[in-house]
Write a structure and sequence with these properties.
The structure holds 3 protein chains of 3 kinds. Chain A is an all-beta fold. Chain A has strands spanning 2-5, 17-23, 30-31, 36-42, 45-50, 55-59, 66-68, 72-76. The relative contact order of chain A is 0.39. Classes of the chains: A mainly beta, B alpha/beta, C alpha/beta.
Amino acid sequence: MTDVPFPEVSQRDPDAEGVLATWFVADGERVAEGDLLAEVAVDKVAMEILSPAAGVIHLLATEGDVVRQGVAVARLS
Amino acid sequence: MEPREQRDLYRMMVLIRTFEEAILREYHADKKPAFDIGAGMIPGEMHLSAGQEPVAAGVCAHLTTEDAVTATHRPHHFAIAHGIDLPRMAAEIFGRVDGLGKGRGGHMHLFDPATHFSCSGIIAEGYPPALGQALAFRRRGTDRIAVAVTGEGAANQGAFHESLNLAALWRLPVVFVVEDNDWGISVPRSASTCVPSNAERAAAYGIPGVRIEDNDVEAVHEAAGAAVARARAGEGPTLIEVHTLRLWGHFEGDAQGYRSDVDAVLGRDPLPAYETTLREAGVLDDDAVEKARHDADDRVESAIAFARQSAEPAPESALDHVFA
Amino acid sequence: MTSTDTSSPAPSAAPSQRKLSTAKAMVEAVAAEMARDPNVFVMGEDIGAYGGIFSSTTGLLDTFGPERVMDTPISETAFIGAAVGAAVEGLRPVVELMFVDFFGVCMDQIYNHMAKIHFESGGNVTVPMVLTTAVGGGYSDGAQHSQCLWGTFAHLPGMKVVVPSNPHDAKGLMTAAIRDDNPVVYMFHKGLLGLPWMARNPRAVGPVPEEDYEVPIGRADIVRPGRDVSVVTLSLSVHHALDVADELSGHGVECEVVDLRALVPLDTDTILESVGRTGRLLVVDEDYLSFGLSGEVIARVVERDPGLLHAPARRVAVPDVPIPYARSLEYAVLPTRSRIRDAVLELVDA
């Protein structure tokens, strides 16, 4: 199992949060390492989450959720 | 200047004037008794460049056909000086299938890809495409340049200012030429422009600005030489404004009732003035002058003949060439 | 194929086709063409480090550098005109007009130069450029930042006009536009880009093939077949029409949704074939009602054969009013699902 964390958006503030804006994969899909998984937004800046590994993805967050950096938004099995 | 260069300038000016006189003749021949702009073999508007020959001759002497020229609604002198195909230019003015644009463009929309020549009937709008041509030339690692021509009235249009800024910002290999012939149709420069010379406006864009007085072809030649060299060396654009002369009306049919200087116009004709200058310098004699006129007549009349014998485009072809 | 189906396969199934947002699909097409053809370059306001204010050029500067991804001053006449000149000399610019609403400051270079030079030169000069621009409302950007205006551009001869509605077509139409030797106006609706900072339709994210492909310019797509009504539409309205079609299917009304994908050339044959089968025509158009696309579509049907229509044609468009700022007013003029639903039901009852 590999966690897919919400990306680091601030080094100064460990509790910084952003929005999980868009999932590009669905729960239960098989993904490859480097695949585009999601886009997150911090204010108007968007960042992409690429898959850290291959596997079947299980989503832990929903589009629109506010998430703290580092918190797992999905798991790969 | 070398005598050979001086004779070349004179011969180019004679060629241009001869062509314009021929078009003047052809244009009016079948619009009688009362002037009807839509009648005859050359219908529509006609903007002739008699009196402005020194600008075209002086600038284009420094160009090759690999350099681009974007000209205005009054394009003939620059087209000829830049080496456009004269018979096909005449045919286009006559609206015939053998014209540069197969009759689709007419006198204000002459395009010759072989010499990278284009013109536009919209005031000042020839400046922006010249920037793009210059960008392409530089992108390809050449020292080719683009010369963009407008009138003094165009210097008050937004495209003029945007283009000077952008060309200066990107140090594009462009030479901006402003032909100040005193009149924006019927409005004198003093009533349109807040500064006495557009060469001053170059300073607002951080580029050199030069004003040439007296329609002096050799002064144009010298200033253009420096500007072209700057551009080829990658030093960016220059603005050259030439105080020139619109010998005839803004367009053919223009009665010029507004024109306060009309009595002085013939006395300012640059062609006899330069002929006199060169005769006095021993560069021209009767034979040379006669030869220049004779050669020009030959070329021009055969171009006109080519145009007249070319077919009119078929109506069924009216929808062709919208898309490639 | 549409991008409506976003459901997942069973957990141990083979990997499904990867999905992109419309914005990312556009960028992928531009990047692929830039890699393939050194003559392709991008120019516009904020398209460099910012990546385009609607994310139309994200990442291109890092990949291709500032010589090929050029930020410009706020000088639309100068830089769009420069694109024309560059294209005349054989480069292939992709130049962005930030909002279509800004065309007023530079329309001369667009319709008198970009669109006319090929014709005026008797076909001797080509202008192979793409003019991209953001269109559309629904997020309270007011009268000067919410227009569609494709009818205005389509009305003027000499430029192709394409309007993708989904990520798959966004990539394919961009590739086709860049490869086309004619000027192409590529109009992308802000509401279907999949931007994180704008409310979006779920179909703004969809399957996009990884390889290069073209969607032919001038070919409409019947994205949903149906026997009762031809809903001819484009852009974001395709998704609203599909939503209405799904809902009404449960009530026994089957809508056929035709995604035009381009206005120039307009796929008259597909429109006529669809109306010939259903006998009922509804045009849904987010551009202004009068003197535009919706009238043109109806005219083309009636010119061929008014007998094709078993009921008068209907159209749902933005009325002839500047788009209001207040949300209640804006949504009163946009072609919303409820307006589309009402029009379909009236057509079916007529």
